[in-house]
Each structure stands twice: as structure tokens, then as C-alpha cells.
Specification:
By secondary structure, this protein is α/β, with parallel strands linked by helices. The chain has helices at residues 3-23, 28-37, 44-60, 68-78, 144-148, 176-179, 188-197, 214-222, 235-238, 241-248, 262-265, 294-297, 300-320, 340-349, 374-377; strands spanning 133-137, 155-156, 163-166, 183-185, 204-207, 227-232, 252-256, 273-279, 321-331, 354-356, 364-366, 369-372, 382-388. Strands 5, 6, 7, 8, 9, 10, 11, 12 and 13 form a 9-stranded mixed β-sheet that branches. Helix 8 (214-222) links the parallel strand 5 (204-207) and strand 6. Helix 1 crosses helix 2 (28-37). It starts with a helix and ends with a strand.
Length: 391
Amino acid sequence: MTPAARLQAAIEVLDEVIASARDDGPPADAIVTRYFKHRRYAGSKDRRAVRELAFRAIRRSAERPESGRAAALGLTEDDPSLLELFGEARGPEPLRGGEAAAKAGFVPHWLVPELSPLVTSDEWPPLLDRAALDLRVNVARASRGEVLTQFPAAEPTPLSPWGIRLPSDSRVDDHPAFEAGRVEVQDEGSQLIALACEAKEDERIVDLCAGAGGKSLALAAAAPGARILATDSNRARLSKLPRRAERAGANIETRLLNAPNELAELADWRDSSELVLVDAPCSGSGTWRRNPEGRWRLTPERLDRVIGIQERLLDIAAELVRPGGRLVYAVCSLLSREGAGQIERFLERHSSWISQDTAIAGGRCNGGGRLLTPAHDRTDGFFVARLRRPC
């Protein structure tokens, strides 16, 4: 492919990403993979170049562009040499007078007032940096020191005693340590959430929004004797956990829930759980390093909807915790209403509950919890809070 053809391909990919973000379709990575699945003529260098162009455009624009062409025109403001490719054979159509380029930005304008006061404009650029690849060592099977020797490019994560960090373009799914269940891919921020739970042997633990089970696996490694129930309402995601648990040697029970009947379906765990983790659905604003088009997907209506879901899940979790037990709430978000504001509203509804500090090495105090950010902690953005039910 010529440079002009690569730019045209990036525009076509961007058009698909924009439409998918608008309609809540598949993520950008999946769109790129699908695009080249039907274009076998493109070599590895072509695929890499097109992907790089597309993601440069995605990272550059906080607001969803009108079109892939507008996004590509935005790139020309940073790299004027791309202008020469418009009008070339197999490239984008020639430039027309008055065409608008997508504006550059880090945070969508409407979201700025929603950010935590800790996330000042100085912290915005790292929200779009490429993230390193973090692995969590399965401490039930190996020590971090042992695993570090198997990854020459790795270094220990600074905050989690379980983590090792690799360059962002590393591949580990065929590594012997991964195949043997000694490591799992997990951002250091997610590891810190599991550490904040302080899981203990013989406890009854519910991971209420387990998804594919990353944090359930971390809890099982930290407390192999605990009884862990991983639940979710998404069958496809939850179905991935048994295979992962088998590889890791973890004993985790799974249960598919159906809204709004969660409490009835969890009757045998009601008032009897020492720990309930609520890693709730959220805006995803803390993961823009990995999913930069997430900014294009979020709308005020979608934000209001997930905040309502979070409140309902917190109230369900409160019913599961035994007297003296604890509830850990986490969201991969930098928005006040999803973090500190959510805990403030929970304590208004459950005034006898006690807010506790979270025993993690990173983050900054933020209302009733702690906030991790890419700029301050070099992790994904997370809010985490710990609450105790009175005896």
C-alpha cells in the first residue's frame, strides 16, 4: 500500500469507529481487525501503519468527529506532510475549500465539570498516553521474583506487590508463565482494588460484577481458602471465568444473575458475606489510555444511566454483607458523581455504615475513598472506597 492508500484506509476505519461509537457497537481494536480480515493484500507494515494513523486520530480528538475524513484532516494540523496525500491515486479525495478538521482535545467539553477536582488540566495529557502492559503474578503459584526472571524486559510495579510491568507492545498469551497460570494480564490499578479488599482465608466473598473474573482471580490467589462467588448479568463475559480459574488453579463459583431479581437469586448469601466487591459498570473514563474512543461513546444520558446502575448495585451489595463485614466499591472512572459522590449518597441512604480508609499504597484521598490517576500513579484511573457494616 502506498502512503496515500494507507491514509485512505485509516479514514475508512475511522468512519466505522465513529459509527460504532455512536451506536454502541464493537471497539476500535475489533474494527481494525475486521477491516483487514477482508483485505488480505495488506501486509503487516501496512496494517501497523493504518492502525497507527487511526489511533493517532482517535487519541487526538476529545469530541466525536463528524467523519473519518475530518479526523484525518485534524492529523494534518500536527503533520502537514499528510496534506500531500490528498488527491493521490488510491488516496483520499482532493482537498475542498472550507472543509472542517476535527478539533484537538483531551476531555470532552461537557465532561470537564464532572471530573474529580483532583484531575486538573495538568493531568489531562497522560489520560491518552499509551499504557504499559501490567501482569499480576498468581502468588498462590509463584513469587514475583521468580516470575520476573522469566520476562527479561519486565520491572516490578511500584505500588502493587503482585505486579510486573512490560512494554505496551508485549505479547504474553503464548508465554509459558501465562499458559501455566502463573500470571494474568491486569493493570496495576485493578490489582490495588483487590489488595484494598484484604481478602482472608475462610471468608465468604462475593464479586458482584465479576465480568470475566480478573479481580475474582486476584482474590482467590490472595486467599486460596476463601469461598468466592463471582456473579454477573453478562453471560458471555462470565463464561470466560471457569477456564481462566482452571488455568490459575483457583476455586471460584460462578452465578449468572438476572436484573431485577439479583437479591432473590442471591438469597443464600444474604447477610452472610464477609466481603462484597462491587466493581461497577461505569463511564470508563479511567481507561481512555486503552480505549480512547470511549470519549466518543459517552453521553450525558449514558452517564446518568450507569450512575443509576451503580446506586442499585451498591444497595444490593449492602444486603449481602453480614454485620461487621465490608463492602469495597470501585469504578474505573475519574468522575465525581461515580466516585466520591456515589459514596456520599450511599452513606446518606445507609447512615449507620462506616467509611474506612483503603489499605493501598497509591492514590489520593477523594471524599470517602481514594482516586488513582494515570498522571499521579501510572495506573488506569480508578476510584475505590471501603465501607463497613456495623455489628
